[in-house]
Structure formats: structure tokens, C-alpha cells
Amino acid sequence: MLSESRTRNPQADLLHTSSRKDSGLPVPSSSSDSGRSMTSGELMQSAPLLAHRSTRRALYKALCFLLLILQGGVLDFYLIFTDLYRCSWIATDLVVVSGWGVFFVKNARSRRERACGFHQKSSMFGCNLGEFTYAYLAWLIYVIAYTPKVVLILETSILELVAVKVPCGVTGFKVAALLSAPLLFCLIGSVVLDLNGSTRHRAHSCFLSTCLDVLDSFTLVEMLLRNEVPSAYLKYAVLAAFFAALAAPVLWLYELTAAELRCAWLCARFATGLLVNAPLLAVRCFLVFVHRVPVSVFMLKNVFFLACRTLELVEQCAAVRGVRRLAGGTEPAQFSHCVSENDMCPHGYVNTLAVSQS
Description:
The chain crosses the membrane at residues 58-81, 87-105, 125-144, 175-193, 233-254, 266-290. The structure is a single chain. This protein is mostly helical. The chain has 14 helices and no strands. The chain has one domain (49-357). Helix 4 packs antiparallel against helix 5, helix 5 packs antiparallel against helix 11 (249-257) and helix 10 runs antiparallel to helix 12 (263-289). The longest helix has 54 residues, at 29-82. The chain is flat and about 60 Å long. The two termini are 50 Å apart.
């Protein structure tokens, strides 16, 4: 009779099962079997999405290597065209490409460890391994190899010879120099997992700011190519601001990887913006008030960015200190993008125990 009543009234059985779950009592094996079937079904539904993500990341990785080879090849051609003894710069490009290959391998390994729930170690700078693991190191290697090439080309008469003997010589140099922006975009796309996540939006907002700084500084680099900057000190200030803008992604790529928001890194990010916008503003003020050059729109951008970065520094440092004061100073201020990947199980479910403990 009991079995017949259960067969005749399945809704009451479902209500009985849900009440046992809410009260903390063990659930019969039939409900666990249905839970396993739901898990496998959701896994089958998520398979096309995972394949799409892996294909998209593979495409961006291929674009990264293509842009690295293209930019390095053009700059090496300009260097070797004037002096065959500069063939050693090719070895630098091979080191950069190999370093980025190691970065992608390490990043993929970290992603697999997070999916399997392994304990994550810390990097050499004390940050927890996250979605942008080792990305800042890859960009640092790139900047270190890219900077001396551009300085050597700008400080010598290479462009003058290239402009005479090579079609699109100076234009080719400008295009090759600005390939850093799409390379950074491809780097972000090669490691981002969730296209709608807050981490991706934060990365792209930082990318747009960096891209604007690079374009701002490169407008004065073009003036250097036309010999329109009168003083050597102004020339060095322009070059320093240009390479500071290229090195700025190292900081915010680290912030996207790190788990702690510290005032020291906020001050470092502010100092980077100051090293970019302050020299450019000083150069433009000198050109406007001394050499009567027309006012550039980027001059207003420099003033606006300096004011915004100052207000942002004060606001965020006050917020971090307020959180630490409320916490009693025992725990560092944490920031997260909703639920981190370290709290996710292999099938995409949230590890509630890890979230509650954090």
C-alpha cells in the first residue's frame, strides 16, 4: 500500500524529498541518482561552450605569436638593413617568442590545476595564481626586448637611410611601433575565460587607458621624427613617457592576478600614470608657451588624467584603510570579481565551502 501511494502521488514524494533536504536529513538514493544525471546533462550542454572558449583562446594565442614575429621582423629588418652585424637582434625575438610560449603553457597548467581543485601556490611577487597568471611577466619580457630596438632606431640615422631606400620606410616603422596595442589586446583575449565577467571588463578598461596613453605619447614621437622638438631634454622626456606607457600594463596585469588590494600597488599605479602624463604635459606646455605651437587636445587629456588618477588614489586608499579598520587590522583587504576561479569545481559549480571560509 505504501508503494502504491508513492506511485500514485509523485508530487507528494517530491515535496517530501525537498523537505528532507531543507531539514538536513539524508536524501534517498533515487534523488542522488537524479542529481548525477542532471550533472552529466549540464556537462553535455556546456561542452560546446568550452570548445568555443578553447578555440577563441587558441586564435588569440596564434595572433599574439603572429604580431610578435611581424613587429620583431620589421624592426630587425631596419636594424640589419643599415648594419649586418646587428643580426644578433634576431636572437632577442626568439627569446621573446619562447618566453611567451612558456607563459601560455604555465597559464594553461594553472587553469587545469584550478579546475581539478589543486592547492594554488603563490608567485614570486606574492599573488595568488588567477586568470591572468604570469601575464605581467610575459609583457615585461616583451617591453625589455622592444625598448632598446626603438631607442636605437630613433637615436641613429637608420630611419633616414630606410626612408630613402625602402618603400614605406618611416610609415612602416610607425605601424610596427604601434603593433603593441593590438598585441596587448590579443594577450587579454588569450587568457580571459568569461566574456561577461568583471575581470574582462576591468582588463579592457585598463587596455583602453593604456592605448590612449600610447597614442598620446606617440604623437610627440612623430614630432621627434620630424625634428620639431627643439631641446634634447624634451626629447628624452618624450621617449621616457612613451616607454612608461608601454610598461604600464605590467602593473594592472599584476592587479588582475593578485588577490590583495594594497595601498602600495595603488601608489605604484598612480606613479605610472604620473610618469606618463606629467612629462607629456610639461613638453606640451613648453611647446605652446615658448615655441607658440597650437594647443593639442591631448594636453587637456593629460590634465584630466592627472586629476582623475589623484582622486582615484585618495578614494581607493581611504577605502582600503576603512576596510582594514573595520576588520580590526587582522586580515588584509581582499577584492574579488564575484566568485573567483579558485572557488569553482571542475564542472563549473561553486565550491561553497571555499567561499564561506574565504
